[in-house]
TrEMBL record:
Species name: Acidocella aromatica
One Pfam family recorded for the sequence: CoA_trans
Domain of life: Bacteria
Record Gene3D superfamilies: Glutaconate Coenzyme A-transferase (3.40.1080.10)
Protein known as: 3-oxoacid CoA-transferase subunit A
UniProt-listed InterPro entries: 3-oxoacid_CoA-transf_A, CoA_trans_fam_I, NagB/RpiA_transferase-like
């Protein structure tokens, strides 16, 4: 009899997976598609000295920002962290380590890790501080920097829909770093908005195959936040 991938809540979905000093990939872009419920369970666990790979660090009090508040994150591997005052304060005081990446380079490092590619060359960052201490080569008259693939102990992702076998569908902008991260860790746990039975998802619509996803948790409520709301002024 197959073991169910569906867990009753985020705490049980992460049971036995968390430990001090581990590396976690966390999906999302800004506040869109972030695994907020799983992040909350990590906070409640008290695990610390974490290295977190994520495009950004959320905002103060939301997303990964809650793990910064409790100082559970030791190092961030990120692309953009400009919306988080807590992050800035901890970084400038030397409490938090940061490994900055150009956004496309970060995406490719994660994709490469999931594909089993240990390193690759990119022109992005050559001749800048990004390239310091890294191998460089020239191909066809252009200079490139060697970047290594990223692979984590745990990936936490947010999906719009899943079946109980772990096949995932992401919706619109939430299809950002989540699909790549789901492939690039020893264990992937997904929180999902809608959970259906096998066969109810068109195979052509599946973005992350269930073979990558070991545990699922169905969300009872989803808070879809807007990081920066921009609206037109009402006409007189």
């Amino acid at each position: 009899m197959a073991v169910s991938k569906v867990y009753p809540n985020a705490t049980t979905a992460l049971s036995g997976l968390l430990r001090d000093g581990m590396t976690i990939m966390s999906g999302g872009f800004g506040l869109c598609g972030i695994p907020e419920t799983l992040i909350g369970a990590i906070r409640e666990s008290g695990v610390k000295d974490l290295t977190v790979i994520s495009n950004n660090a959320g905002i103060d009090g939301v997303g990964l920002g809650v793990l910064l508040e409790t100082r559970q994150i030791r190092k961030m591997i990120s692309s953009y962290v400009g919306e988080n005052a807590t992050f800035a304060k901890q970084y400038l005081s030397g409490e938090l380590e940061i490994e900055f990446n150009p956004q496309g380079t970060l995406a490719e490092r994660i994709r490469a890790g999931g594909a089993g590619i240990p390193a690759f060359f990119t022109a992005t960052g050559y001749g800048t501080a990004i390239a310091e201490g890294k191998e460089t080569r020239e191909f066809n008259g252009r200079h490139y920097v060697m970047e290594t693939g990223l692979f984590a102990d745990l990936a936490i992702v947010h999906a719009y829909k899943a079946d109980t076998e772990g096949n995932l569908i992401y919706r619109k902008t939430a299809r950002n770093f989540n699909p790549m991260m789901a492939t690039a860790a020893k264990m992937t746990v997904a929180e999902v908005e809608h959970l259906v039975e096998p066969g109810e998802i068109d195979p052509d619509h599946i973005i992350t195959p269930g073979i990558f996803v070991k545990r699922l948790v169905k969300l009872d409520h989803v808070e879809k936040r807007i990081e920066q709301r921009t609206v037109r002024k009402k006409e007189a």
